[in-house]
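Progress against Task 2.4 (sequence-to-structure conversion) is shown through the following example record, which the project officer requested during the mid-term review.
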Amino acid sequence: PTAALAVAVLRLCLSGAPLASLDEGIAATRLYEQHFATVDLSQDVQAQRLVADAATKSGRTDIFEKLVRSLPDSTSRAALVKSYASDRCLHVAQRVFEACPEKDTGLYNVMLSAYIAAQDIASAEKLLSRASADGAVDSEMYEMYNAMIKALLQLGDSRRARALVQTMRSAGMAPTCATFNELIDAAAAKGGSAMWEVVDEMEACGVKPDNITCSILLKSVQQRSQPRDIERALKIVESVDVAMDEVLLSSICEACIRTNRSDLLARHLERQRSAKGVQIKAAHTYGSLIRAYGFLNDVDRVWATWREMTARRIAPTCITLGCMVEAVTNKGEPDAGLALIHQMLAHEETRSLVNAVIYCSVLKGFSHRKRFDQVWAVHDEMREKNLQYSIVTYNALIDACARSGEMSRVSPLLGQMSKDGIEPNVITYSTVIKGYCQDNRIDKAFEVLEDMKRSADFSPDEVTYNTLLD
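Structure tokens generated for the chain above:
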């Protein structure tokens, strides 16, 4: 009989159930044993499962093991393990694995993945120890160790993950850069000195960082980081023997901006303008460069970067546009920022990029320059376009009220906030208090303070009280 006939008959017998009743299981195993035992089922995993399920239900371990042994190679046996594991039948997948006459690292890897997917870490660790005991060192073993390390890190157990690196080395396998990248990324998320300890270990093992390592290190550098962190991260970047790419360039720009290191940023931007510069193809990278030049107060290069992007027909994203509007506005050109918004609105293909967040940069720009007539004109324009406001938009408008002494506008704005379903935050209340204090309406300021005290969501902060004291 053919495999197709065997499958059809067995399915009829089992009615297609994953684990049929005992009577049907016995009937199916007898059919297989008497008529189909010699049929090659290696190309049909579902057929294999029909026989395996029937043998499991009827208690015929011998037929189960005979089926697994009949499969011609480790690849076909691994496919059967994967099939059960994907259906969360881990106990059956384990039985298939144990019934395999030979177990290579590929088969071990499949079973390990099944345990990890089921979050059975204890069984996964035991299986990895068994595989290691065989002494094989190949790509599958590296993959197993890396998968186990990643699983431990996802559970937040960095201590055991780092211990596994030592076990890996003791087994004669040098950890790869990918292994350390997982450890560094997990340590960076926790903060503290652990990340640099892993970097030290990486260097001690003679493993060179790659672009991914550098990006992780740079993204971990925050405003609160020590100056030596950004300096060391950039030193590692400069020592990496790989080509600079767009992700790494953006990471350098953002890290220097976050840490207020204009000196380091200027040096790397100068490199970008040289023959060693990255060929940029993504609007996101142009956005990072625009932000970087804006941070350096180089408005000429801000515009030059924007013109280069448009000349190369790279379509901006809303983030790129937001970076551009913010950069020119912050450098004293809110009119230019507004003109750029209008330019985007004039073209159907870029109209959808404009949102309230981008407009908000212009609102703040006019407000900080005491051009309050323009603030309210832009506000009216935004309302006319039915843009969706956020708490940031409303806070910018209320700040304009405080700066201009037009506190009569605050109540309608708060009413509109309520209609939009936006709750005031501590910044909103503090700004209102500042406005009333500047307007010499101290009684109203204290009324707002009492409202803040009654709020269950937030309390007055140091800035609030300092405003009242001043």
